[in-house]
């Protein structure tokens, strides 16, 4: 029997939220209710619905902020926005940036159900905008270039995508390695299957093994239920291992075994699980130097480096700078509702001459800052220069980086312990009172992580 599709509904109006849930439940869908964008983010930390339907205007974070969070973290998850008349321009701009669709209130239930069917792929593939055929045909559109060196690379991407070999992407920070990993996935025969990403440098070593391979109930203190790892979640699709050069040596051994035998063994289990996953990895490190230093296994390197692609820095593709800058300008002018037409010639010259140590990520940040500060339809040289200076001095603060790490760490502890605060506090080596305060600081609701039967 086919499991009903899950839809996450987000609205700060309890009556409207309940009414929408009743309508969709009667149509055969499972609904998860969230009364704020923050609560919705909590739910997305725990599980993945097939679709998110969100109101545009809410107290706290609005529907656009929620969409941007989803677009960064789960870009394949479709989002439908419900909007009042006054926010239609925002919704139109959002569709251009990746939202699946929007409906104005009061919405027609039949039209909503039709959009839902299209969004989660219940209509025939020819009618489904996110079908595999569409993704395979459009994967190049996400990579903006007029550079010969980039065209050569895209030809290689197309060729590599047709097979199933492991791919290692290398290049400086900020060149867009995840964008290329996603392009390989979308151009491949696996494009309608999951694309799962994990940053090996961002997760504490004691949690990384469980995140990758999963664990069984009782595998360690606090593991009160079975937990599927990312290999299992990516079954049939692609797993992108970002910053693979930072993976601890002990885990490198287990990853090597998984790649050689095509099986994984969750922490605490005696049973092996077969896997069908394509591995795409990336690093900004020189792995050969890491091998010589004893920090990276040579046998794992050759397993990952069946095909190697090097993504050029922005300085190596300077002809793309005006193209990219104008693309980002259009995106951010829409986002911030600014009437801006382009750059002054002196500003473009300045962009072309800069060294771009942060690559495309830095260029995008500079353009957005310029758009925000501009009071006229043309971005001037002075605005770009000042934005460049701010970008170099406003590196993410230690405090902001600590907050993000802390939230991610708490989410993973709650997942592992299924919302058991006592066990999570023990794993974190903190007392319960302090741990509760940490959860409150990050607006994390531990009850959402408990098994369904315990919530009833």
UniProtKB/TrEMBL annotation:
Residues covered by the Response regulatory domain: 6-120
Residue positions where 4-aspartylphosphate is found in the record: 55
Domain of life of the organism encoding this protein: Bacteria
SMART domains documented for this protein: AAA, REC
CDD domains for the chain: AAA (cd00009)
Occurrences of domain Sigma-54 factor interaction (ranges): 143-372
PROSITE patterns: RESPONSE_REGULATORY, SIGMA54_INTERACT_1, SIGMA54_INTERACT_2, SIGMA54_INTERACT_3, SIGMA54_INTERACT_4
Name of the protein this chain belongs to: Two-component system, NtrC family, response regulator GlrR
